[in-house]
Design a protein that fits this description.
Blueprint (H helix, E strand, L loop, with lengths): L35 E2 L2 H11 L6 E5 L5 H7 L5 E5 L5 H10 L3 E5 L19 E6 L5 H10 L6 E7 H7 L10 H7 L2 E9 L4 E2 L6 E8 L8 H14 L7 H8 L6 H10 L13 H17 L1
Parallel strand pairs: 2-3, 2-5, 3-4, 5-6
Antiparallel strand pairs: 1-8, 6-9, 7-9
């Protein structure tokens, strides 16, 4: 039997899938360090590294259009975002409707009083997370040091070069005054490296996430001595390629004779020919004790 001819069937095209709605993001102001973190894997990793536990409250620095905010809010924890750019108000308002535990405080994170934002959450239940503009890294580190007794941990995205300085051990070239000053108050861990292509627009430098955990027993608790210790660290790194005794003689104010520094270093068990990056935090803490005695007699 011959095959029966059937009329040609016309293939009906499947309905087009709806195009995903892109978030309404204002143009990034790269001049002030705005780069939107858009890589879903990296966003999930940061939320996982935050390791939010029941009863904890999150303070997010710079939620912007809300990509990371969404991941943090999905943990179910109360979330406070501090944002200075009011162009993101509609994004964050929409997120608030979806996650009622999200609140936004508008203002400069370096100037706002954080304490009222935490509400009744005790310090051991407070977590700080932030993908920050690189320009504010140093002042933000100083602010975190001021707030060190008021939160349990912080997870901060910063320029990778700065992150590597924060965790640099003694004797390495990356070690800096910032390394030692932060070590007075925190245990610093580089927990995630992030490539430039994870951002839109793409920055010129790589990034990294650092976890800062306040020390339960800091080496120096006395505020006056702590201030002197931070000044000592700055002076020691003032001419970082010089021997320690020369840098201290040159940069400590009010100045002390080189012979006095030689005596102080000997009493602290520190070789004067060392460079500042060779010293551990404990050596600076020991040196400042003898320095404080000399300053009180002056």
């Amino acid at each position: 039997m011959g095959r029966k001819n059937h009329p040609t069937r016309r293939r009906v095209a499947a309905p087009a899938s709806p195009t995903p709605r892109r978030p309404n993001r204002p143009r990034a102001r790269t001049s002030v360090g705005q780069h939107y973190l858009s890589d879903g894997h990296v966003l999930r990793r940061i939320a996982d590294l935050a390791a939010i536990a029941p009863g904890e409250t999150i303070l997010e620095i710079g939620p912007g259009p809300g990509a990371l905010t969404r991941r943090l809010a999905a943990t179910g924890a109360p979330l406070i975002g501090i944002e200075v750019d009011e162009r993101f108000s509609s994004n964050l308002r929409d997120l608030h409707h979806e996650f009622p535990k999200l609140r936004v405080a508008w203002g400069d994170v370096l100037k706002l009083d954080w304490e009222p934002l935490w509400g009744d959450t005790p310090p051991e239940r407070r977590v700080i997370v932030g993908n920050i503009p690189y320009q504010i890294t140093s002042p933000l580190m100083a602010r975190l040091a001021q707030e060190r007794t008021r939160f349990s941990r912080a997870l901060i995205m910063m320029q990778r070069e700065v992150a590597e300085r924060l965790v640099a051990p003694p004797g390495t070239r990356d070690r800096s005054a910032l390394t030692v000053k932060m070590a007075l108050d925190f245990r610093s861990e580089l927990v995630l490296r992030v490539k430039p292509q994870a951002f839109k627009p793409r920055p010129r430098v790589a990034s990294a996430v650092v976890r800062l955990t306040p020390l339960a027993d800091p080496p120096v608790a006395n505020e006056e001595e702590r201030t002197m210790l931070r000044q000592l660290i700055e002076a020691a790194f003032g001419s970082r390629r010089q021997q320690l005794i020369n840098s201290l003689t040159r940069h400590w104010r009010p100045s002390l004779p080189k012979a006095v520094w030689a005596d102080l270093l000997e009493r602290a068990g520190i070789a004067p020919t060392l460079r500042a990056e060779s010293l551990a935090r404990e050596q600076f803490s020991e040196l400042v004790k003898f320095l404080a005695m000399v300053e009180k007699r002056a």
